[in-house]
Amino acid sequence: MVAGDTSGAGRAAGRRARRAEHRAHADYTGGVYGSMLAASVVIGAGSLGAFPRAELILLLLLTSLVFWVAHVHAELFGARLARHAPDRRVILRVCRDEWPIVKAAVPPTAAIAVSPVLGLDVPGSLWLALSVAVAGQVGWSVAAAHRAGASRRLMVTTASVNVLLGLVIVAVKIALTH
Fold first, then answer.
1. What is the DSSP string of 40-95?
2. How high is the pLDDT of residue 27?
3. pLDDT tens-digit profile of 13-31?
4. What is the structure's pLDDT at 38?
5. How many angstroms separate the CA atoms of 43 and 4, rounded?
């Protein structure tokens, strides 16, 4: 892009470059955290009412949104306010950076939504959502390690740790249902 280029192609190239730079510096912490949050919501959903799938879908999405708002608030007003008031650009960046918390709830929510098509009853739907959440947790952590340039050994280690954490979540689910 030439300096001062205000053509549509120049602006589009600038946007692509900014998105590529953001992806290069992406932080997957929110995705790992959001996946663990979704898994914990699924295991804690023992007393669903007359519409358990709809209630769980709302519970997953609303819980992730509440935690997203909490993280944005903590990021903006915890440390930043002590230094200076955040401007609109900073607020939008923090909102975007914390959005993986919400994105991580989407796959388990989708699993709940499609579970009737798969012929699953409500307990089967919960297990499917839990499995999807744990797989997301592992996937986000491996993606973070890969993006950071970690060795294969470190990527296997992070996957193993997150599988172990997922198994702990599954053990809690089994303990709560028996």
1. HHHHH-----SSHHHHHHHHHHHHHHHHHHHHHHIIIIIIIHHH----HHHHHHHH
2. 62
3. 666 655 555 544 456 777 7
4. 79
5. 55
Half-sphere exposure (Cβ direction) of 6: Cα atoms closer than 13 Å:
1
Return the H-helix or E-strand segment holding 112. helix 106-114
Residue type, 38: A
Distance in angstroms (rounded) separating the CA atoms of residues 60 and 55: 9
Tell me if residue 7 falls in helix, strand or coil: coil
Write down the residue that tokens 């955290």 correspond to: 33
Please report, for residues 29, 69, 87, 99, the alpha-carbon distance to residue 91 in angstroms, rounded to integers and kept in the order given. 18, 12, 6, 12
**Token pair for 46:** 């023992």
| Tokens describing residue 4 | 């001062």
Are 128 and 57 contacting, i.e. CB atoms less than 8 angstroms apart? no
Taking the C-alpha atoms of residue 24 and residue 18, their distance in angstroms, rounded to an integer, is: 10
Residue with token string 């919960």: 126
The tokens describing 23, both together, are: 């992806």
Taking the whole predicted model, whether its pTM rises above 0.85 is answered as no
